[in-house]
């Protein structure tokens, strides 16, 4: 089917307006310009729009003539297609048109009252006035010409006598927005007229009732938006941004305790208030024309990636082996990584804020570590199957910077480490229950795929996992210390709580950031109820600082889970460490001691390649002060993003915890089961917006994690961050409504 994307936009517009009550049954018509052609896609004539399909949409040329696709089953286009053709021909800035019927706009036409400039918003988006187009029979050339005369002045909304209204937009979302704005100003002006002192306007009773009820509903909605609104974060133009270069230039004192990446802990209540305000608003993404440019980038500049990932779908489920690689509209194939940059198969270079999901704090493909690892591997090979000195060296250097990790057991991944920690906690305490924070990610083991990413979702993502595997797992809502206490009390009747496992910065690497004292309160509860506190430091370990989040918060967990950074970006990155009396359980009886022993294994765990890489990477991080440098780069990036968000008046939220930077444009990760209807209704749209923004960043040379999270590294100099901010500026300038 030709021009499928434009047809789909028409269907999406119809569904949006049906949901919001702007379009009813067969009243009106909708169209979208086909980019690069003298054509547009338009709804068929007298069609039930709630049953609209992509294949039902008609293609018409700028002369108003139907262009059949040859199937022989196409419906006839709207009888108003000539009017649309005239608009597209005379207004190149218009890419979408809505024509529908409104009783209050019809009342204004009846009174011959054009809408004057009532608000700045109206003037900005609709024009200085909303003119009335003279009557002409529906579907005739007379009506098309009457509209053509009015639209030439550049306004974007008109009342058509006896035919409702017409709203124009630079893209489909803008046309729908202008439609809604026109409805609001029509009601406001109509009510102003009906209450004008000394004058009486005869308006049919039915129209008056519709207008008043609609206004009351709008007043409640607007009042709620004002209540939930937050003042923008202002960044003074003359403020000197944080500098990673300044930290890098400082000579490290070998005897000094390494610092932390978080220069100032964020204001959690204010951040959560802004995130909730974002979720309360309709989504705001790219303009239609800008999104088409993004998709065109992938189609024309990334052909090599598309070819190889399409081939991969024949042999690899989904075409990629890791969730991080699932990018919209298709995955990129990377050939080269170095420092702050990635280069794809087609030779396109990107600023890399993915950093392999967070482990490469030194920057990608860091040569000093590679050279030392290569020297070890030349002697021993990547694996021996027997003990190697770097197993001990890695455990010792972890203990050097994290004294609470008295013993360390290497495993293959963070998922394996979480499994081992839970098993050890149950074996040592004799308790059975495990509590996690809803929305947190602790790997994909059977026990932990519970309340995954969406708080309160329980087993919604647990397909293929038997009920017994999660029968002793519970979740508490983020930030709710009171609910955690209740779960601990309930678990007393179920055999007690073996462990409470948390991401110390908050679920999903701080997507829901925790208050500064949250971890200390959880520690106190664990002590009160005889449960172990497990810190999942897969992301935060070494990235927050060499002392990890435990060192930063000053809270000592019983067990700590490692991954990603513990091997400096090399594979087989994972392990668990903690107090010696707990860690002895991992001896599997080989140490000759009595007591609880658990079975864990892995032929490739603690191989020379991974252990040497981890040891040398931690050494280099300490020598270069990499976590602090990366943290200041995160500060600079966040400050710049906030300035851009304020510049363009966007509802987006940017914040960071050191080198972990969050840029929320849709707030999809803030949806939860406390509002299940909102989750069901908005999840797909908000997820789609996040994917589209991620694609836009990529098309402008920035790689992010799913369009909402970024990891900075030591390689991100001030120049790199400033270049990235210039590219974000270009993307934000293309957001709908800017």
TrEMBL record:
Disordered: annotated span: 234-256
Give the Class II aldolase/adducin N-terminal domain ranges: 8-190
Q: Is NADP there in the keyword field?
A: no
Q: Which cofactor does it need?
A: pyridoxal 5'-phosphate
Signal peptide region: none
**Keyword Transferase attributed:** no
The UniProt entry, under InterPro entries, shows: Aldolase_II/adducin_N, Aldolase_II/adducin_N_sf, Aminotrans_3, Aminotrans_3_PPA_site, PyrdxlP-dep_Trfase, PyrdxlP-dep_Trfase_major, PyrdxlP-dep_Trfase_small
GO MF terms here are: pyridoxal phosphate binding; transaminase activity
Q: Which PROSITE patterns match?
A: AA_TRANSFER_CLASS_3
Q: Which UniProt keywords apply?
A: Pyridoxal phosphate
Q: Name one Pfam family in it.
A: Aldolase_II
Q: Where are the transmembrane segments?
A: none
Q: Which domain of life is it from?
A: Bacteria
* Name of the protein in question: Class II aldolase/adducin N-terminal domain-containing protein
């Amino acid at each position: 089917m030709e021009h499928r994307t434009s047809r789909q936009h028409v269907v999406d517009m119809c569904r949006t307006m049906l949901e919001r009550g702007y379009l009813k049954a067969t009243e009106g018509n909708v169209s979208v310009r086909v980019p690069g052609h003298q054509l547009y896609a338009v709804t068929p004539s007298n069609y039930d729009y709630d049953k609209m399909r992509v294949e039902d949409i008609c293609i018409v040329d700028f002369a108003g003539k139907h262009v059949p696709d040859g199937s022989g089953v196409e419906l006839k286009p709207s009888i108003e297609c000539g009017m649309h053709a005239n608009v597209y021909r005379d207004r190149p800035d218009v890419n979408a048109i809505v024509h529908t019927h409104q009783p209050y706009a019809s009342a204004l036409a009846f009174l011959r009252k054009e809408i004057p400039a009532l608000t700045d918003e109206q003037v900005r988006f609709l024009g200085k006035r909303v003119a009335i187009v003279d009557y002409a029979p529906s579907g005739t050339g007379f009506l098309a010409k009457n509209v053509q005369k009015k639209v030439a002045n550049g306004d974007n909304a008109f009342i058509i006598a006896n035919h409702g209204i017409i709203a124009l937009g630079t893209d489909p979302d803008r046309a729908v927005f202008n439609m809604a704005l026109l409805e609001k100003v029509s009601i406001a002006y109509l009510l102003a007229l009906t209450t004008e002192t000394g004058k009486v306007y005869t308006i049919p009773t039915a129209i008056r009732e519709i207008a008043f009820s609609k206004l009351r509903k709008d007043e409640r909605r607007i009042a709620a938006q004002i209540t939930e609104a937050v003042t923008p974060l202002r960044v003074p133009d003359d403020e000197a941004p944080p500098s990673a270069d300044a930290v890098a230039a400082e000579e490290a004192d070998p005897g000094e305790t390494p610092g932390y990446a978080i220069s100032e802990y964020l204001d959690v209540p204010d951040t959560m208030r802004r995130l909730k305000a974002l979720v309360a608003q309709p989504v705001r993404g790219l303009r239609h024309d800008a999104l088409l440019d993004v998709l065109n980038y992938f189609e024309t500049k990334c052909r090599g990636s598309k070819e190889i990932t399409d081939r991969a779908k024949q042999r690899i489920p989904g075409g990629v082996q890791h969730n991080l690689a699932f990018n919209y509209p298709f995955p990129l194939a990377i050939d080269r990584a170095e420092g702050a940059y990635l280069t794809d198969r087609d030779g396109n270079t990107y600023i890399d804020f993915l950093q392999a999901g967070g482990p490469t704090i030194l920057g990608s493909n860091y040569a000093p570590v590679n050279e030392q690892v290569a020297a070890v591997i030349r002697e021993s090979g990547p694996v021996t199957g027997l003990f190697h000195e770097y197993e001990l060296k890695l455990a010792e250097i972890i203990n050097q910077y994290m004294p609470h990790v008295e013993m360390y057991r290497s495993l293959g991944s963070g998922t394996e480490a979480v499994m081992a920690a839970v098993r050890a906690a149950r074996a040592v305490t004799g308790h059975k229950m495990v509590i996690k924070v809803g929305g947190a990610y602790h790997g994909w083991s059977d026990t932990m795929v519970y309340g995954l990413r969406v708080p309160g979702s329980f087993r919604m993502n647990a397909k293929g996992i038997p009920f017994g595997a999660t029968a002793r797992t519970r979740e508490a809502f983020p930030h709710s210390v009171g609910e955690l206490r209740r779960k601990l009390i309930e678990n007393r009747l179920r055999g007690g709580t073996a462990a409470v496992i948390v991401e110390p910065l908050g679920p999903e690497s701080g997507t829901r950031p925790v208050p500064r004292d949250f971890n200390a309160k959880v520690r106190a509860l664990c002590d009160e109820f005889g449960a172990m506190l497990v810190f999942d430091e897969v992301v935060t370990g070494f990235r927050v600082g060499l002392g990890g989040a435990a060192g930063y918060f000053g809270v000592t967990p019983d067990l700590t889970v490692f991954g990603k950074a513990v091997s400096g970006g090399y594979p087989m990155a994972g392990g668990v460490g903690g107090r010696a009396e707990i860690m002895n359980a991992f001896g599997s009886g080989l140490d000759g001691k009595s007591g609880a022993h658990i079975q864990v294994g892995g032929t490739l765990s603690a191989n020379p390649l991974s252990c040497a890489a981890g040891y040398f990477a931690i050494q280099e991080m300490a020598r270069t002060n990499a976590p602090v440098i990366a943290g200041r780069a995160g500060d600079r990036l966040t400050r710049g993003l906030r300035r851009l968000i304020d510049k363009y008046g966007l509802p987006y939220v940017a914040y960071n915890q050191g080198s972990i930077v969050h840029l929320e444009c849709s707030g999809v990760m803030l949806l939860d089961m406390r509002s299940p209807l909102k989750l069901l209704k908005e999840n797909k749209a908000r997820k789609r917006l996040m994917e589209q923004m991620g694609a836009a960043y990529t098309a402008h040379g920035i790689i992010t994690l799913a369009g909402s999270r970024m990891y900075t590294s030591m390689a991100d100099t001030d120049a790199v961050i400033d270049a990235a901010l210039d590219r974000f500026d270009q993307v934000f300038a293309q957001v709908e409504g800017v």
